[in-house]
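Our working data are protein records whose layout never changes between entries. The record below serves as our worked example for the rest of this section:
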Amino acid sequence: MGFSCGFVGLPNVGKSTLFNALSRGSAAAANFPFCTIEPNTGIVAVPDKRLDKLVEIEKSAKVVPTSLKFIDIAGLVEGASQGQGLGNQFLGHIRTVDAVAHVVRLFADDDVVHVAGKLDPLRDLELIITELMLADLDFIEKKLEKSKKLIRAGDAETKAELAFASEMAKKLAEGVIPQIDKDNQTELDYCKSLGLISTMPAFVCANVDEASFRSFGTDEKSKAIIEYAAKHNMEVVPVCAKLESELAELAPEEAELFLSELGIQESGLSRVIHTGYRLLDYITFFTAGPTESRAWTVKAGTAAPQAAGKIHTDMERGFIRMEVISYDDMCKYNGWNAAKNAGKLRIEGKEYIMRDGDAIFVRFSV
């Protein structure tokens, strides 16, 4: 599995329609609030031309891409942090995903009523972010209230964690999403223990029609969204559900030609995947051969034994060494054996840090 991405947004912004278009799923999509109550889940293969090339080179009988899980979460409403709408149930579902896509509506359609009565994507995004921050602030304040005795009597570690929580609460009260140092493992652990939603990896998914897709980034509504999202260190990815639905019906070669004719470099699905991988700092490595070629996803900085454990736990437990050939050399020499004969195979030990595009073979003993 690559990563899980939760679609979050107000009711009737087209989350379920977008979910269906990207995942080829069958989530209910209707013109009334809370059409989605329990989260819908869809799993899609992550397209990777490198894997396709390895399959071709190795003449693999089977191909297994990594995958992405989309989760269509029930619509958020103003006051969700205080229990309005689906309240805590909604917030609990968000906490289960790896990354959040804040869906805002830029398409105009008189037949699809907006829950606020008027189309205003910037207002919608502000509301989403504010509700998540208020939920986090409420959670931290309750935790700090319960922990007053621990602050007085606790050890240094407890005091440090509560001091961190107090700093997070201060930022949230100021209307600022706290920024976490990704290289500071202590901060990451504290943040995880607090279960903060507003600090989760997130981006904005602008649900557009074909007209607004073409003008995206130049019209006032989309420019305002991009500017506001940038203040919160979030990217904005425009996705047209109608276009994605049409692409889903085409063969890969036909889809690529269709996009080219429209002057579009990549599909919305690809943009969402690439954005998620960047946010989560993920890389892909491969196992390739005549029997099977497969893609695997790990965090950047993962050591060889832990990467091997993704394939099978025995490989991590009994790890001896890893044989590695870069994707570029696999292509240049037309396969594993030819690259090995050309001296491009490297023997790596337990300290080796995986690189994006590595093709590997694991030696282990249990």
